[in-house]
């Protein structure tokens, strides 16, 4: 009980949220400017990598995953890898058909 | 106060329940992203040209709106934890306002396409070929489903605003607000992926 009380009461400061918001805005502007340059197939990769970075910030700080039970983080990673692996397997099927 | 403290409450379980629901949401949108990637792979040229017709400016503004709204709802939880009811209500109010602005932008964006006869089932759109039909079909369906989530999120936040103002959500019991925040962040995160896939990858 003591332990759950402690994790529950973790207060994240306003400043931390504002820093994270700043990072997210900068990453958005980077992805807009990078994709406006023609990089061919790399554009997709760059845009998606930036999106993954952004969502990791949202998950860890905004959604408090950093301060919650480790089990939740493991579950999120499992669901995310399930979706990505199905996308990759499906695309491999279409590419090498 | 003492009466409520005696009632059995399991905040951890409550949050886990919310996360399990969020996982089903991730799988729902994940499925749509699979459909998107396959059709994009098979109609690369048409998707490329069609996505150039979307306004990057409006998309970017909407992305920034959702990011700020995510930060404000997260900060409203800090405010509740610090028993700052007024600030919490202000931050929740800003979140709702930003959500509404997002929807208004979306309305004008869709409206512009529809006046140009670009919508699922439009005969003029079907003349432009299979790839365009698929792109706009996915565009309207995925951003529409996302907008529906925004509306649900706004209703959810509306309930928490009432609860905070009536002190039913307070520094000792704020798990509902946390769950509401989790939902809103998920909706934000889905947009983080929708935005580059529809607006940027041209």
Task: Please tell me about this protein's structure.
- The complex is a heterodimer of chains A (97) and B (202).
- Chain A is mostly helical.
- Chain A folds into two domains: 11-63; 67-97.
- Chain A is built from four helices and no strands.
- Chain A has helices spanning 2-8, 14-36, 42-62, 70-95.
- In chain A, helix 2 (14-36) packs antiparallel against helix 3 (42-62).
- The longest helix of chain A is centred in the last third of the chain and has 26 residues, at 70-95.
- Chain A is flat.
- Mean pLDDT of chain A is 87; it is low at 1-7.
- By secondary structure, chain B is mainly alpha-helical.
- Chain B has one domain (28-199): Four Helix Bundle (Hemerythrin (Met), subunit A), CATH 1.20.120.80.
- Chain B is built from eight helices and no strands.
- Chain B has helices spanning 2-6, 11-42, 44-51, 56-81, 85-115, 123-127, 130-165, 175-200.
- The longest helix of chain B is centred in the last third of the chain and has 36 residues, at 130-165.
- The model of chain B has no long low-confidence stretch (mean pLDDT 93).
Summarize this entry quickly.
The complex is a heterodimer of chains A (about 100) and B (about 200). Chain A is an all-alpha fold and about 100 residues long.
Task: Set out the fold topology.
The complex is a heterodimer of chains A (97) and B (202).
Chain A: H1 2-8, H2 14-36, H3 42-62, H4 70-95
Helix pairs in contact in A: 2-3
Chain B: H1 2-6, H2 11-42, H3 44-51, H4 56-81, H5 85-115, H6 123-127, H7 130-165, H8 175-200
Helix pairs in contact in B: 2-3, 2-7, 2-8, 3-7, 4-5, 4-8, 5-7, 7-8
């Amino acid at each position: 009980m003591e332990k759950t009380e402690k994790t529950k009461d973790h207060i994240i400061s306003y400043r931390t949220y504002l820093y994270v918001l700043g990072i997210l805005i900068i990453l958005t502007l980077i992805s807009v400017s990078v994709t406006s340059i023609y990089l061919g197939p790399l554009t997709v990769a760059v845009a998606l990598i930036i999106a993954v970075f952004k969502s990791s910030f949202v998950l860890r700080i905004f959604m408090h995953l950093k301060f919650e039970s480790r089990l939740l983080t493991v579950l999120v990673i499992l669901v995310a890898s399930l979706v990505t692996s199905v996308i990759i397997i499906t695309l491999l099927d279409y590419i090498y058909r | 106060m003492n009466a409520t403290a005696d009632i059995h409450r399991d905040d951890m379980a409550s949050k886990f329940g919310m996360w399990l629901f969020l996982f089903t949401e991730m799988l729902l949108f994940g499925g749509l992203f699979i459909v998107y990637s396959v059709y994009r792979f098979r109609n690369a040229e048409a998707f490329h040209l069609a996505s150039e017709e979307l306004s990057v400016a409006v998309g970017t503004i909407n992305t920034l709106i959702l990011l700020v709204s995510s930060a404000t709802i997260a900060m409203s939880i800090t405010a509740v934890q610090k028993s700052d009811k007024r600030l919490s209500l202000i931050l929740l109010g800003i979140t709702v306002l930003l959500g509404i602005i997002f929807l208004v932008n979306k309305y004008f964006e869709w409206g512009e396409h529809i006046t140009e006869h670009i919508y699922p089932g439009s005969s003029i759109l079907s003349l432009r070929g299979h790839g365009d039909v698929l792109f706009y079909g996915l565009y309207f369906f995925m951003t529409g489903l996302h907008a529906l989530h925004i509306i649900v999120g706004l209703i959810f936040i509306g309930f928490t605003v009432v609860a905070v103002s009536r002190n039913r959500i307070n520094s000792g019991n704020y798990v509902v607000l946390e769950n509401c925040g989790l939902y809103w962040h998920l909706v934000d995160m889905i947009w983080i992926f929708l935005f580059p896939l529809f607006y940027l990858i041209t």
